[in-house]
Amino acid sequence: MIDFELPEFIKNQNQLIQMVAEQAMRPYSRDLDEHEHERPQAFVEMTWPFAQQMVKRDLKGLEIALNGRTGQNGNGAAKSAPTKPNYAILSLIMMIEQLSWGDAGQYLCLPHPMLGGAAIQSAGTPEQQIRFFKRFTEGEPKWGAMAITEAGAGSDNSSMRTTAVLDPDSNEWILNGEKIFITSGGLALEESDGVCVVWATVDPKAGRAGIKSFVVEGHTPGVTIAKAEHKLGIRASDTVTLHFDNARIPYENLLGSAEVRQKGAGTKGFKGAMKTFDSSRPAVAASAMGIARAALEFTQEKLAEEGIAVDYTKGTHELTAVERDLMEMEARHKGAWLLTLRAAAQMAHGQSNRLEASMCKFRAGEAVTWITQKAVELLGPMGYSREWLVEKWMRDAKINDIYEGTRQINQLIVARAILEYTRRELK
Ligand SMILES: Cc1cc2nc3c(=O)[nH]c(=O)nc-3n(C[C@H](O)[C@H](O)[C@H](O)COP(=O)(O)OP(=O)(O)OC[C@H]3O[C@@H](n4cnc5c(N)ncnc54)[C@H](O)[C@@H]3O)c2cc1C
């Protein structure tokens, strides 16, 4: 049974994050939205010490696991499920929700390994995790990113064209290609000594089996920021095109094994990298839920000022249209949030959550899109005005339907899992 009682340290963390969201995020929301490509300085300064602590906590866990490890699989991850739940996962999900309540675009600028860290955790050995995470505990703020998407290789990322070729003389990988729409790509690689996990093929003829992930470190020669995107929403977030022109990557920055298995013998490398989505999708869902809660609470507050609030004791036939809409907003929010918590709880208990990760991601993306549009609608012209943040939340919401697998792709994954169809049988 899933226990809904939060441990004390998460309750304390929630208070701290609430303060960050209210004091270092909301007051800058409009300004950062209107000045795209400016960095959320106050947020970064306030959160860097806290983010460092989070990574230190993860490192401590890794070192304990490494010293006392017993059975290992090929990637170095422990074979057996943890006996105690990993509350760090739940605390991260709660934090993402709260920071996104503050401002989703700024949250994405958290100086933390973020999506890059999820990829390193999924595909890297414990030694690699320790090596790459350590830099996030010292010095100036640093960022992590992950680059999969290419022009023509988004939903179907197995057709990616970025290549990694091993130079036998220097024992380095040479990366060539272009990745588009990479969150925090500029922050990770140009503005800090961060890391970006880049997916590339070591053997284009091998299809999925040839795809491997590589950790590219900040300021690597041959890596350039070709373009910074102008976006509909999450405009405080850094979204860039990365260009790799003979970028040399140390051999040991390959995550997992370099072995390319023959067709029909499994695609371990690609599957290992896909595992990233099991943790990143609940994280995206949590972010969606933060925006949804912001819109819902604000709408309830403004309507209450006009004397409009849901009377839960009324029969369905007695409810006004506005009351019905408010109840529908609450229901969609709660449903998607519970799915998100379930996927996170499964992770915390070391259980497989592939189906639930996709389920919560598409439900949360759908819910936040609908809820924020409803908020704009219910608040009339002021909902549409830039005086309030509701119209911004509506724009910020939509990305949750797009990245980490679009709504349609996650629905496909859910359908395949429930109906027991293969990728080939249900496209
Ligand atoms: C702001 C932003 C930040 C991003 N950050 C990152 C990042 O950090 N790293 C990264 O690697 N990528 C990132 N992305 C890229 C994002 O993950 C992709 O845009 C997304 O996966 C969709 O891929 P695509 O753009 O190629 O769309 P396409 O795959 O071309 O899809 C277009 C449309 O067709 C639909 N579609 C495609 N295939 C099917 C199918 N089989 N059945 C039904 N419908 C289908 C899709 O759902 C979508 O509606 C980001 C994108 C944005 C906009």
General description of the model:
Helix content is 50%, strand content 13%. Mean pLDDT is 92; it is low at 70-79. The chain contains 14 helices and eight strands. A hairpin with a 4-residue loop joins strand 2 (163-167) and strand 3 (172-183). Strands 1-4-5-8 form a four-stranded mixed β-sheet. A four-stranded antiparallel β-sheet has the order 2-3-7-6. The longest helix is centred in the last third of the chain and has 30 residues, at 276-305. The two termini are 34 Å apart. The protein is globular, with a radius of gyration of 22 Å. The protein folds into two domains: 8-274, Butyryl-CoA Dehydrogenase, subunit A, domain 2 (Beta Barrel), CATH 2.40.110; 276-419, Butyryl-CoA Dehydrogenase, subunit A, domain 3 (Up-down Bundle), CATH 1.20.140.10. By secondary structure, it is α+β, with helices and mostly antiparallel strands. The protein has helices at residues 8-25, 29-34, 41-67, 87-107, 114-123, 126-134, 185-189, 268-274, 276-305, 321-348, 354-378, 380-384, 390-397, 407-419; strands at 144-147, 163-167, 172-183, 195-201, 211-217, 223-228, 239-250, 254-255. The protein binds flavin-adenine dinucleotide (FAD). Residues 115, 145-149, 154-155, 181-183, 231, 239, 399, 402-403, 406, 408-409, 412, 427 line the site of flavin-adenine dinucleotide.
